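thought: fold this chain, then report.
action: predict
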Amino acid sequence: MSDGPVNTLVLIGVGSSFVLSSLFYRLYQDKKKELEKLKKIPIFKPDRHLLHVLKASPHRRLQYVAVEGLVQADGEPLASRFVPRCFGVIQKISVEEHWKYWNNLTRTWNSRTMNQKETSNSVPFSLISPGAYMTDLFVKVQSPLEAGGCPLERVYNRVRRSEEGLVTLALQGLAGEKPVAMVESEELLRVGSILTGFGEVVLEGGQVMRLQAPQDDRKFILVATDYRSFIDRHESSATMWKTLTAVTGLTGASLLAGIIYNLGKQDDRSKKA
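observation:
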């Protein structure tokens, strides 16, 4: 009598394994295609080679390339509001309040975030080649706040716990809610950090190179890492989906083989009986 439920659970396991294997395989194929497209993108540094390529290109324009360099402010950089001697070219400061409110249905305190405030600032900046701080060759980055990716580094994060006092008790008693904490954080694209930008590069005038959003439907992306590390991260992701595809597929095949083997044994017993 116990074979039925066991076989049912095994069949569910077989089906789930093959479904997951198919899902992971599709994710692997999508990541593989994305990786192949990324590897076809030409990679440059802000140097004379890029300048020569632009001068030889039609309309002095490269439609979609990657440019890797160090961040340098064109003028005065942004100073961190909280960290001494910390400077950047893009700054994002976030403040949010965490409250608890009484749920009459569950008779418990639940959490929620409210009064979220976020301010973003930026100053003009360029990318330069490593070790070339005194060079006249650089690539200006246009409209960086419009770019995708995550080029910012968190340099400050503080949680301020609310004090239990008369105001808190009054709110708790009258409105069924109370403040818990206020969280402040600051993120910067720091001066001197390495950045890789994906977009269109144009040559203006004699040697003013500019990285900007492409005119087609491809994405303008800024990532706070070098090109090789960016590719390695995508390759690791593809390897993960490939491994999960193999593991779940083998699990499903093993369970299915076990079912077929047990059915064969049962059939032999029936014939002998």
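thought: worth noting. The first helix runs from residue 3 to 39.
final: tokens above.
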